Amino acid sequence: MTIRLPDSKGGLRTYEPRPEPLAVTSGAAFTSRTVFSAAHVVADPYADVSPDSPAAVDWDATLAFRRHLWSHGLGVAEAMDTAQRGMGLDWAGAAELIRRSAAEAKSVGGLVACGVGTDQIAAGSLKEVRAAYEEQLAVVEESGAQAILMASRALAAAASGPEDYLDVYGHLLRQAAEPVILHWLGPMFDPALEGYWGSTDLDAATDTFLEVIAAHPDKVDGIKVSLLDAQREIDLRRRLPKGVRCYTGDDFNYPELIAGDEQGFSHALLGIFDPLGPLAAEAVRALDTGNVPGFRELLDPTVELSRHLFQTPTRFYKTGVVFLAWLAGHQSHFTMVGGLQSARSLPHFARAYELADGLGLFPDPKRAEERMKNLLSLYGVTQ
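Below the sequence we write its predicted structure tokens.
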């Protein structure tokens, strides 16, 4: 069987789908790396909502996907930008997601860390920003999950320089009950975060970031860096205090960063590990045995798909992630909160399907092919 797919030049090409999926096995947590998948949310396709409405979430399907990730030994990074925080999922929906996911994690013994931000306010003073962070931190801690202090649009707007970041983060770290993960999300993921840490000069911003950590090393489990700059991440992780981990958020260069070098390695907290979950887990299990070549053999071929999903404008990578979850059978529809399923083009979807199928990511390749053909027919592509 073949399928006709649109290309980037307005034509059609013929593709022969893979007959069998990649063989993977589920298993326990890893021993060599701590690995989180930032997980997407599944929209309720029957909800009568508009793009401006609060998110309508299919909780059963959303939690089922988290159980899928946990079954392969992956941790879940909850209520992060992959879950459309600030792009369809408001704080009320995120708080409910945190509570439900943390409870589900307890029931199955899964690892979960949850995003703490300020998205219940659009803007405000530094005092209001701090209070917003505190409210969300309390929700996460009460749920029993680890906290991830996310970059804040409101703080980026309110801060006048590095000292404001030092003050706000210092206050939050002092009151955190347990060590947190600090999250540096670059403007390619959210343009409102330009100049985070008080400077558009990344070297100066890095110095401020490290100053925050150095002042409270006992309250920082690790840092999550999403700047899509491998060398900068390597340089940064080499400057971290002993015991503070680096979790790569680089969806372009993750195999080499996780594999590491003679001076260290990165753990992982990645959006691309949503669609790559079982394959990524298989790769990390090879790393657990010291088989670095086997790890790279499995994970290196996935980079082309990741770079495709995260292409400019990068913040719309969530659309491709949910699209692949639908093709893989993790949800019954391709609908997203906020109507974000419209954020990528048909040629983009076609290439994502082809790359994912080539990697063997679809447990049922025939179902994935049929769903892809159904989508194509909606766009007027006949087979």
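The longest helix spans residues 91-108.
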